[in-house]
Each structure stands twice: as C-alpha cells, then as structure tokens.
Amino acid sequence: MASDPGGRAYPEARFVAGHLIALVADRDYAALSAELSPLVQSPGSSLSRPALYGDVLTWIVTALADVVVARLGAAADGESFVLEVRTTAGRTVGAGDLPPGQGRVGRSVLALLADDRAAARAQLAAAERESDPAVRATTLVEALVWLNAMLDAETSTFPDLPPR
C-alpha cells in the first residue's frame, strides 16, 4: 500500500501535518487550536484554506494506514482489518456503524487497508466538503490523535501476527 491515494499530498500539506502532529505530541493545545482555526473554516470562507485542509487530512489518513501496516503487517488473503470504537457509554461500535459525519477517518483508513482507494477518496472528499467547522476540526483532531497514539505505541520490531 502506498500513501497519498489522491496524489495530493503536496510539500506544504506534509509540513503542516507534521507540525500539527508535533503540537499534539507536545500537548500544546493552544498552539494546535490556533493552527487548526484557518484550516477548518468552511470552504469559501475568507479565512479558509480548504484545499490545504483536504491535503493535510489526506496525508494524515494515509500515514495512519501506513503505520498500521508497518506495525501489524498487511492483511493476509481473505482477511481484513476491523476497527471498533468504544463509546462514552461503554458500547463497542464498528467504524461502518458510526454516523456519516463521524468515523470518516476510520472508514478512510480501513478503505486504504483494503486497497479500496475509491472508497478512501470518497470519505476524504466528504470530509473536505463538510461545511461545519466544528465537524472539520473534530475530524482532523481525531486523525491527529490517532496517528500520534499509533506512533507512540510500543510494539515489537516485527509485526505481531495473530495466531493461526
């Protein structure tokens, strides 16, 4: 699997994404908020950088899929990755069962892991078209926090494959 399903991860997007990940890792939420504000404005807003939002989100999501494969290995023939989220109520929900505005990051990553680039592009395009800045921010922060957690997770040098 190769990163950048849309071929849009330009150098500025990679730089901004890296900077945002560093802010999350440093827990500098005031600076993160200041950096996110212009990125998450509705498309068409005078403060908005909508193309950069999509590029940054694409870079982070594809980096997430790459890290999953690097940590866990690729899915074997006939197998697939599963993503479940525990709700605040303690319920476990699959990524496909989340409302359309939520879970776009998980569905995008799962699509990339399944080598379904069209589905990943559709999820990322929907996130980019989202008009609510709060939803756009939540989507980007979800991806940033997940990538930071994956990068910080202690794992063995080699993927730990499940028993057969």
Characterise this structure:
The structure is a single chain. The protein is built from 6 helices and 2 strands, in the order αααββααα. By secondary structure, it is mostly helical. It has one domain. A hairpin with a 5-residue loop joins strand 1 and strand 2. The longest helix is centred in the middle third of the chain and has 23 residues. The radius of gyration is 16 Å and the shape is globular.
Compact summary:
The protein has 164 residues and is mainly α.
Q: Structural class of the secondary structure composition?
A: mainly alpha
Q: What portion of residues belong to β-strands?
A: under 5%
Whole-number count of domains? 1
- Poorly predicted ranges: none
What shape does the CA trace take? globular
Strand order within the widest sheet?
1-2
> How do the helices and strands follow one another from N- to C-terminus?
HHHEEHHH
Helix content: 55-70%
Instruction: Describe the main β-sheet briefly.
Output: 2 strands, antiparallel
Q: Count all strands and give the number.
A: 2
